[in-house]
């Protein structure tokens, strides 16, 4: 579960929406 949140937060921090 942590992996999901980590990637999610990372993606959002870089761009306004999640990448592929």
From TrEMBL:
Domain of life of the organism encoding this protein: Eukaryota
Descriptive protein name: CDC42 small effector 2
Origin species: Molossus molossus
Lineage of the species this protein comes from: Eukaryota, Metazoa, Chordata, Craniata, Vertebrata
């Amino acid at each position: 579960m942590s992996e999901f949140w980590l990637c999610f937060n990372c993606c959002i921090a870089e761009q306004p929406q999640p990448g592929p």
